[in-house]
Amino acid sequence: MPVSPSRPSAPTDTLGDRRVARSSRRSRVVRTTAALLGVALAGGLAACSNDPVADQYRNGDNKGYIGSDGMRVEEIKPADRDKPVSFGGTLESGKKFSSTEIAGDVTVVNFWYAACGPCRVEAEDLQSVWKKFDGKGVSFVGVNTYDQAGTATAFNDKYGVTYPSIIDVNTGDAKLAFAEVTSIQATPTTLVLDKQGRVAARVIGPIGSASILETLVQDALDEK
Questions:
Q1: Counting beta carbons within 10 angstroms of the beta carbon of residue 55, is it exposed (0 to 12), middle (13 to 18) or buried (19 or more)?
Q2: What pLDDT score was predicted for residue 39?
Q3: Is 214 helix (H, G, I), strand (E, B) or coil?
Q4: Is the whole-model pTM more than 0.85?
């Protein structure tokens, strides 16, 4: 009876071992990439010229922040504005703050946190608008939604921010006060309050340029 020719068996160290080797290499690459990304994000307050989170945002990578569907500017006509917002909390300096202290001012309220890429990018523009309107009936208040005071202070020192911020992470009271009249779903979000304390304009996402915010503030100032 004819015997069928036998097929040579595959060497024991070929296909299976190659798959294991490739899997091992892939695992090392993933671990290395994750480690490098962790280092980049942990270096949140590194030098401005070498800021990976801000660079991620500039390059279109939104991993470092809570994103919205692009920057949106919304102005609200006086007749359509909701009730005035009363808000307050503890500043990074430890001082208590209440919006009653700035009653009658046009107020810019910026929601931010230190590891937020676009928050870093827009910090210079926010500071420049604050300086332009300082002493002209305009107040600036940040609301830090994530960090403790030390991190917020380090951010301010690094980016030259001189207006105060409420440290809201422990209570959420400031964000809740605004949530009654407007949605705060993206970080950053910047609100312009009229002289009565009502939300007159909002920028969802980064402000884009100082001139955009300047126009919104000036419009609120010019209202009778």
A1: middle
A2: 36
A3: helix
A4: no
